Amino acid sequence: MFYKDERLALFIDGSNLYAAAKALGFDIDYKLLRQEFMRRGKLLRAFYYTALLENDEYSPIRPLVDWLHYNGFTMVTKPAKEYTDSMGRRKVKGNMDIELAVDAMELAPRVDHIVLFSGDGDFRPLVESLQRQGVRVSVVSTIRSQPPMISDELRRQADNFIELSDLKEVIGRPPRDTDVDDSAVAANG
């Protein structure tokens, strides 16, 4: 699936990857993830996309964002929007799809292979466009959760589908007891 001399870029939909790993019962060790893909090819960039709650005193994802920023990841963040739904429940909206798509399109002429960490079917047209530009696209998500975390359309469009649970031994660590995670924006509405 990978060639040693190909130029790679990783595009990580933070809340989507978090939800998939949680559904499989493990946390991602991002240092190991980056090392794994550096081993598979010439890693040019590793992007991580997430929305942040700006008005909270403490955001549970801030330590992860800071760590990733200082450890070789290009962080793409924006303020999450808070709202109250019709049932009076507090909800958070922080969709990063457009930012990820624009960055992937801009980088496409400089890479051979893009690895998309998301199962969101909204990315199918992006994958198709990248392929028309000559870029191979692998998608990392899971079909082993109930329900599966990857849309069938996205899985079919990708050049390669990488089952996240197959990477567990390489990039996983047991989940922590505390819920410090990307779940605050996992409901990318």
Structure description:
Helix content is 32%, strand content 27%. By secondary structure, it is α/β, with parallel strands linked by helices. It has a single domain, classed as 5'-nuclease (Rossmann fold). β5 (81-84) and β6 form a beta hairpin. The longest helix is centred in the first third of the chain and has 11 residues, at 14-24. The chain is globular.
| Rg on CA atoms, Å | 16 Å
CATH topology: Rossmann fold
User: Tell me, what is the CATH class?
Assistant: Alpha Beta
> In one word, what is the shape?
globular
The SSE string, one letter per element, is EHEHEHEEEHEHEHEHE
How many domains would you count in the coordinates?
1
| Overall CATH architecture | 3-Layer(aba) Sandwich
Going by CATH, what is the homologous superfamily?
5'-nuclease
Q: Report strand order across the widest sheet.
A: 4-3-1-7-8-9
**Helical percent range?**
25-40%
Number of DSSP strand runs = 10
Structural class: alpha/beta
- Runs in which pLDDT lies below 50 for 5 or more consecutive residues are 183-189
Q: What portion of residues belong to β-strands? A: 25-35%
